[in-house]
């Protein structure tokens, strides 16, 4: 029979029912499966500076004499599991780190030892360190976890992770890298959102200078999940300022934590050989004397700390378990997706070709979906992000085509033809004022351009009569005006081609691992894109040549309509000018503006009908310009349609799914298949690690769901109820416990509410009392204690 110290905690008997214990056990099972490597588990971690009394705190909680020399346990975390059972049992095992190989995990998993006496613990810890590969001759550090399971009568239901003591400075035994390693490890544990931090602070030193508080504040800025523990209060001089400061700290008045503070007096050097019972008696006597007796009993002593920690842990588990299940499910989905990307093991050429066939089929489906605008696949992501948008290839192409058409309309002409107003501002032919800041093209007035055309007419005259012109002069002017088209077209084709390359790369990387993706892009995708670029350029040049190099041809009625519109605009301008001259008025918008009592209609008609253009060539030049502008618009619209349909759509978009197709894979020679799909050692190791992770997570999910089903909680249930809503439910006097209108509809689930209330007793006591909870709602457990004001 093992000799071991035990302690009784009567307060726990009313606190932890069977469901409470099952919750704690579920988390322990998840941790033993290695879930903590992949998801954040609810846990208590003990942190403190070296010589802060951290080991003595663990000893007081567990009843086990932990080694007090820091150099015995500073290289790894120790998980302490306490359970109340009828028989005494102490077991020690190692939980391998996720970065261990499969063989190492199996080897470390075999480390399972039973203790016959607590005095053997230091030797067993040394043995565990040796199994982990840690020796005193090295400064190695292990991410493995030493698991110590202790059960017996009187033990509390509690799980605590003990972390190495924080090192202030290097010395002969501890290097600068050790300082950084320990701090890094503790920071990583503290950063987990479901971790409750037990920050151990020694009263022998100014708490403002203790590293643990600094790290706790970094990880938990609002102090929502930190409980401070003050040790060695007996070292403070009675009545001193330092004693008052630590009492104020214990009252949560200085460094404020939502979970508050607790004070322990551990054994000093003179009491090092005394029993735990003697230790507890000495502690109780100390807190009943001097200034410390002013503190509430719930804030001092190990007897109050044990149930307090159990309540904190159980409440944390109750609140986090449903969300934890969802996180595990999400991790499983991500793991399966990654394994799907890696594909099956492929050691032979047949396996490699089969793998590429699957990739090509998935690739074609993805490309066709992107081309058709069916963006249901998770690959396409969020369209509001840039990464999600570039994957929607049809949307990208549409946007680029629209931008191309707009750019051609606004900036496709070599020179902008404008009318000159009296104030020298420029008005385009559509009647709007031209923004010279955004348009850097050369501008020319209609009058100046007509003069240029007249000179060109003189240089190209054939056998035409005066006032007539050679139709080919329209081609010469059109070629000059359409000079920017080639640059704009090729810029657009390059933009579409580039977006296709980005999309194809994203699709390939989505479907397979990085090594295969790079091989596919280098050997298959890039040559395909180069060929597409060549064909795009050739087709673009062909369409440009058809638009610009042959003589002007069009049978589009828009050409006639455009000429008529231009002539109507010119006629309106001419009539307005003649009316202004005839009536000698600046504004002729209304008849009242003319101020004419007698008007000879024949004179007005003669003035409007008179042609002041004596130079027939100049009149012909005006006609030439009108025809050129009309033909330019028709040709520009035709080119935009041809480029987007015959070039972008026909040459690129419609052929994009042929970049990688099954028939192509079947025709690949053996060397190319192996070059693309052969598996690297890194890929094999990655698949092995992912397979282990998936097995771990699936096992953890099964354990979690079984626990939730056993407790009867509905899917997605969370015990994080708002304070006001909980009080409202409890005070609904017209309902009994089984009928109360609350998300928890089954009576046994009230235990979760009990735990939630117990951790918030102080802030709720007044509200609970004011609610006047009916007697039928109060049954054995914390509710009765709360109502009684205990």
Automatic annotation (TrEMBL):
<dbReference type="InterPro" id="IPR001401">
    <property type="entry name" value="Dynamin_GTPase"/>
</dbReference>
<dbReference type="GO" id="GO:0008017">
    <property type="term" value="F:microtubule binding"/>
</dbReference>
<dbReference type="InterPro" id="IPR020850">
    <property type="entry name" value="GED_dom"/>
</dbReference>
<dbReference type="GO" id="GO:0000266">
    <property type="term" value="P:mitochondrial fission"/>
</dbReference>
<protein>
    <submittedName>
        <fullName>Uncharacterized protein</fullName>
    </submittedName>
</protein>
<dbReference type="Pfam" id="PF00350">
    <property type="entry name" value="Dynamin_N"/>
</dbReference>
<dbReference type="Pfam" id="PF01031">
    <property type="entry name" value="Dynamin_M"/>
</dbReference>
<dbReference type="InterPro" id="IPR027417">
    <property type="entry name" value="P-loop_NTPase"/>
</dbReference>
<keyword id="KW-0175">Coiled coil</keyword>
<dbReference type="InterPro" id="IPR030381">
    <property type="entry name" value="G_DYNAMIN_dom"/>
</dbReference>
<feature type="domain" description="GED">
    <location>
        <begin position="621"/>
        <end position="712"/>
    </location>
</feature>
<dbReference type="GO" id="GO:0016559">
    <property type="term" value="P:peroxisome fission"/>
</dbReference>
<keyword id="KW-0547">Nucleotide-binding</keyword>
<dbReference type="GO" id="GO:0048312">
    <property type="term" value="P:intracellular distribution of mitochondria"/>
</dbReference>
<dbReference type="GO" id="GO:0005525">
    <property type="term" value="F:GTP binding"/>
</dbReference>
<dbReference type="GO" id="GO:0006897">
    <property type="term" value="P:endocytosis"/>
</dbReference>
<feature type="coiled-coil region">
    <location>
        <begin position="325"/>
        <end position="352"/>
    </location>
</feature>
<dbReference type="InterPro" id="IPR022812">
    <property type="entry name" value="Dynamin"/>
</dbReference>
<dbReference type="GO" id="GO:0005874">
    <property type="term" value="C:microtubule"/>
</dbReference>
<feature type="domain" description="Dynamin-type G">
    <location>
        <begin position="38"/>
        <end position="322"/>
    </location>
</feature>
<dbReference type="GO" id="GO:0003924">
    <property type="term" value="F:GTPase activity"/>
</dbReference>
<dbReference type="GO" id="GO:0005739">
    <property type="term" value="C:mitochondrion"/>
</dbReference>
<dbReference type="GO" id="GO:0016020">
    <property type="term" value="C:membrane"/>
</dbReference>
<dbReference type="InterPro" id="IPR000375">
    <property type="entry name" value="Dynamin_stalk"/>
</dbReference>
<dbReference type="InterPro" id="IPR045063">
    <property type="entry name" value="Dynamin_N"/>
</dbReference>
<keyword id="KW-0342">GTP-binding</keyword>
């Amino acid at each position: 029979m093992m000799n071991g110290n035990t302690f009784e905690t009567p307060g726990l008997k009313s606190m932890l029912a069977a469901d409470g214990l099952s919750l704690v056990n579920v988390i322990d099972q998840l941790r033993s499966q290695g879930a903590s490597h992949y998801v954040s588990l609810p846990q208590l971690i003990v942190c403190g500076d070296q010589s802060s009394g951290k080991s003595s705190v663990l000893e007081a909680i567990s009843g086990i004499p932990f080694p007090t020399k820091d150099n015995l346990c500073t290289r790894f975390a120790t998980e302490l599991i306490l359970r109340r059972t009828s028989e005494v049992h102490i077991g020690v095992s190692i939980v391998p780190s996720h970065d261990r190989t499969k063989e190492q995990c199996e080897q470390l998993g075999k480390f399972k030892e039973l203790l016959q006496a607590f005095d053997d613990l230091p030797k067993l810890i040394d043995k565990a360190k040796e199994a982990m590969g840690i020796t005193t001759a090295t400064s190695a550090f292990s991410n493995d976890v030493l698991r110590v399971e202790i059960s017996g009568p009187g033990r509390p239901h509690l799980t605590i992770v003990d972390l190495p003591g924080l090192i202030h400075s290097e010395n002969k035994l501890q290097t600068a890298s050790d300082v950084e390693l320990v701090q890094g490890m503790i920071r990583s544990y503290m950063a987990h959102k479901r971790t409750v931090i037990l920050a151990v602070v020694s009263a022998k030193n100014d708490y403002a200078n203790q590293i643990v508080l600094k790290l706790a504040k970094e990880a938990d800025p609002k102090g929502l999940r930190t409980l401070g523990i003050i040790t060695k209060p007996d070292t403070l001089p009675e009545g001193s300022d330092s004693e008052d400061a630590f009492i104020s700290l214990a009252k949560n008045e200085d460094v404020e934590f939502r979970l508050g503070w607790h004070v322990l007096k551990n054994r000093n050097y003179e009491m090092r050989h005394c029993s735990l019972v003697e230790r507890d008696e000495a502690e109780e006597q100390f807190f009943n004397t001097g200034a410390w007796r002013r503190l509430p009993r719930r804030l001092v002593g190990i007897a109050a700390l044990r149930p307090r920690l159990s309540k904190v842990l159980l409440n944390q588990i109750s609140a986090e378990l449903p969300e934890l299940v969802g996180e595990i499910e999400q991790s499983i989905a991500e793991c399966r997706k990654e394994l799907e990307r890696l594909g099956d093991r492929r050691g032979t050429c047949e396996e490699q070709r089969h793998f590429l066939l699957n990739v090509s089929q998935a690739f074609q489906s993805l490309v066709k979906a992107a081309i058709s605008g069916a963006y249901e696949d998770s690959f396409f992501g969020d369209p509001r992000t840039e990464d999600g948008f570039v994957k929607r290839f049809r949307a990208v192409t549409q946007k680029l085509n629209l931008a191309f058409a707009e750019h051609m309309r606004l900036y496709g002409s070599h020179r902008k033809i404008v009318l000159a107003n009296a104030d020298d501002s420029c008005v385009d032919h559509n009647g709007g004022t031209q923004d010279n800041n955004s348009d850097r093209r050369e501008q020319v007035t209609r009058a100046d351009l007509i003069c240029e055309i007249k000179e060109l007419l003189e240089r190209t005259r054939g056998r035409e009569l005066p006032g007539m012109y050679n139709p080919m002069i329209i081609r010469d002017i059109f070629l000059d005006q359409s000079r920017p088209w080639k640059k704009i077209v090729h810029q657009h084709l390059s933009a579409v081609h580039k977006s296709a390359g980005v999309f194809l790369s994203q699709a390939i990387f989505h479907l397979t691992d990085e090594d295969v993706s790079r091989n596919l892009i280098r050997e298959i995708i890039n040559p395909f894109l180069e060929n597409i670029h060549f064909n795009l350029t050739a087709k673009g040049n062909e369409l440009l040549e058809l638009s610009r190099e042959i003589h002007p041809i069009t049978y589009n009625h828009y050409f006639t309509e455009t000429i008529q519109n231009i002539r109507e605009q010119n006629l309106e301008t001419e009539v307005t000018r003649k009316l202004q001259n005839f009536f000698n008025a600046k504004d002729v918008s209304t008849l009242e503006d003319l101020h004419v009592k007698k008007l000879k209609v024949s004179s007005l008609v003669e003035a409007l009908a008179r042609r002041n253009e004596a130079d027939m060539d100049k009149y012909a030049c005006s006609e030439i310009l009108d025809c050129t502008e009309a033909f330019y618009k028709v040709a520009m619209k035709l080119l935009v349609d041809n480029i987007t349909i015959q070039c972008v759509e026909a040459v690129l978009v419609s052929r994009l799914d042929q970049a990688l197709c099954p028939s192509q894979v079947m025709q690949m020679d053996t060397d190319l298949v192996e070059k693309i799909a052969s598996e690297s050692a890194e890929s094999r190791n990655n698949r092995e690690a992912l397979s282990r992770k998936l097995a771990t997570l699936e096992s953890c999910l099964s354990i979690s769901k079984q626990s939730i089903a056993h407790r009867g909680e509905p899917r997605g249930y969370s015990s994080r109820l708002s304070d006001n809503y909980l009080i409202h439910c409890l005070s609904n006097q017209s309902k009994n416990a089984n009928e109360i209108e609350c998300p928890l509809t089954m009576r046994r689930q009230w235990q979760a509410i009990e735990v939630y209330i117990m951790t918030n007793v102080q802030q709720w006591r007044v509200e609970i009392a004011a609610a006047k909870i009916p007697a039928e709602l109060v049954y054995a457990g914390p509710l009765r204690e709360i109502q009684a004001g205990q």
